[in-house]
């Protein structure tokens, strides 16, 4: 009788442990962990409209925004501006999970003008981007035989507070070829400061 009683106790404990573990090869009721989730972009506190107004009597020129970002953002506690705008070469980690191919090169030499008295408007998502190394398995639809990016861009939300935006410009432009090849000359920057996320629009004048 003693041996039989201990046998019942052992079987009962084994069954309870099996129920807690979910059985071999199971991750429990929560399902398997998503190894890609830590690389997804955060949710921003809101978008901001950035308006550059040319108060000069002659045109000024922008980066195209295709290969080179047109503006940068620096929270008040940071001295160096960070990437706030994505170019065609910047694949977000979110998008990388479903893209089948990835851009490897960017060729654009245009330098768009802002005419005297005119404005140019950009939209900032409220995120700042950093390049991170996401596991290769997260690029689900990419062809394994093709080149995958070694890094992807992850967006991080900006905490409430003062923010400075920097917009690089050119005072002049040089035409390099008949097909519209251009080079910006005499570079300079304009800056504006606003309270985020309270300020939804910031206007930056280009002084004469």
Automatic annotation (TrEMBL):
This protein's UniProt keywords: Signal
UniProt-listed PROSITE patterns: PROKAR_LIPOPROTEIN
Signal peptide positions on this chain: 1-18
Keyword field contains Signal: yes
Name of the protein this chain belongs to: Lipoprotein
Organism: Polyangium sorediatum
Organismal lineage: Bacteria, Pseudomonadati, Myxococcota, Polyangia, Polyangiales
């Amino acid at each position: 009788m003693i041996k039989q009683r201990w046998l019942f106790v052992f079987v009962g404990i084994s069954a309870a442990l099996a129920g807690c573990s979910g059985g071999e090869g199971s991750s429990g009721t929560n399902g398997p962990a998503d190894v890609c989730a830590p690389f997804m972009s955060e949710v921003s506190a809101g978008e901001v409209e950035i308006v550059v107004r040319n108060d000069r009597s002659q045109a000024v020129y922008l980066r195209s925004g295709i290969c080179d970002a047109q503006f940068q953002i620096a929270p008040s506690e940071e001295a160096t501006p960070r990437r706030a705008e994505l170019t065609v070469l910047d694949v977000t980690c979110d998008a990388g999970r479903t893209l089948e191919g990835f851009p490897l090169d960017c060729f654009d030499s245009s330098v768009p003008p802002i005419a005297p008295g005119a404005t140019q408007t950009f939209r900032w998502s409220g995120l700042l981007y950093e390049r991170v190394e996401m596991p290769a398995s997260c690029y689900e639809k990419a062809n394994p035989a093709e080149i995958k990016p070694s890094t992807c861009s992850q967006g991080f939300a900006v905490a409430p507070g003062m923010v400075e935006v920097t917009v690089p410009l050119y005072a002049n432009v040089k035409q390099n070829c008949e097909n519209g090849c251009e080079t910006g000359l005499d570079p300079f920057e304009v800056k504006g400061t606003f309270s985020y996320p309270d300020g939804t629009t910031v206007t930056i004048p280009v002084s004469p």
